[in-house]
Amino acid sequence: MKQVKAVVFDLDGTLLDTLDDLADSMNDVLARLDFPVHLRDQYRYFVGDGMENLARRVLPEVDRTDEMVRRVSDEMRVEYQGRWADRTKPYDGIVELLELLSRRGYILNILSNKPDEFTCLMADHFFAGFPWAQVRGARIGVPRKPDPAGAFAIARELDLDPCQFLYLGDTNTDMITASSAGMYPIGVLWGFRTRSELEQFGAKTLLAHPLEFLTAIDVNVHRAPHLLRSLANSLSC
Questions:
Q1: What is the pLDDT of residues 158-183, one digit of tens each?
Q2: CB 179 within 8 A of CB 185
Q3: 3-state DSSP call for residue 229?
Q4: In what order do the strands lie in the sheet with 205-207?
Q5: What is the pairing mode between strands 107-115 and 89-90?
Q6: Which of 190, 164, 68 is nearest to 109 (CA)?
Q7: How far apart are the C-alpha atoms of 149 and 147, rounded to whole Å?
Q8: For residue 234, is pLDDT > 90?
């Protein structure tokens, strides 16, 4: 029997609340190009699948040409470079969760559809000192989530079976990725999407706060709250 040894985290909406900086950056790009801007909460459904998909979703349908999508995506990269840390912060309880997992010897990883340079930059800035084994953003030549290629690459680099990973994310993209890779999908309710979306796309456990995860790995399975019992039961494969 193989024990769970590693955790994969999504970045935006799971570790970090990035919505304000993403929305502000893209709205400024849209305004400069004379396109309509969007409300902050609309970005909950625009983000999560990479920069080009974000650009495509925010544009009026009639203007979604390949050329315009590339232009908006490129300008967003430049705009975001100057403001990615303005209002972004870790969610309450995330730092404590990472500290506990690190002390317990779990191998920590990040897998994001955010461009790789931003993913690495933000991991270094907000979570300096944590022993990340793999930090992977969107890379040229590697399919983005929900394709499981990135998740498989993490498992391969660590010489672990995918079933030895827990995977925490806040969107359908994450749940599909985890399930397709053979990792245990945990949906987080503090992020950008809804409980119903996470359940529909395969979350086996739902967490309302990071501290619930701490409880799940601390409490004996027979005394675990029923919401977390499936997680406690699954800590081996």
A1: 999 999 999 999 999 999 999 999 99
A2: yes
A3: helix
A4: 132-138, 107-115, 6-9, 165-169, 184-188, 205-207
A5: unpaired
A6: 164
A7: 6
A8: no
- Structural domain boundaries in the chain: 6-17+88-233, 19-81
- Is residue 126 within 8 A of residue 24, CB to CB? The reply is no
Would the CATH topology of 6-17+88-233 be identical to that of 19-81? no
Query: How would you classify the pairing of strands 6-9 and 16-17?
Result: unpaired
As given in the structure block, the two tokens for residue 118 are 């931003």
Is domain 6-17+88-233 classified as CATH 3.30.300.130? no
> Does residue 196 carry a pLDDT above 90?
yes
Angle between helices 19-32 and 51-58 (to 10 degrees): 60
Token pair of 101 as six digits: 């997992």
For the cut 60, the answer to whether the pLDDT of residue 59 exceeds it is yes
Q: Which ranges of the chain would DSSP assign to H, the alpha helix?
A: 19-32, 43-46, 51-58, 66-81, 94-103, 116-126, 149-158, 172-181, 195-200, 210-218, 226-233
pLDDT of 94: 98
- pTM for this model (two decimals): 0.92
DSSP 154-223: HHHHHT--GGGEEEEESSHHHHHHHHHHT-EEEEETTSSS-HHHHHHTT-SEEESSHHHHHHHHHS-GGG
* CA–CA separation, 41 and 106 (whole Å): 34
**pLDDT over threshold 60, residue 201:** yes
CATH code for 19-81?
A: 1.10.150.240
* Pair 43, 189: CB distance under 8 Å: no
Please give the Cα distance from 50 to 53 (Å, whole number).
6
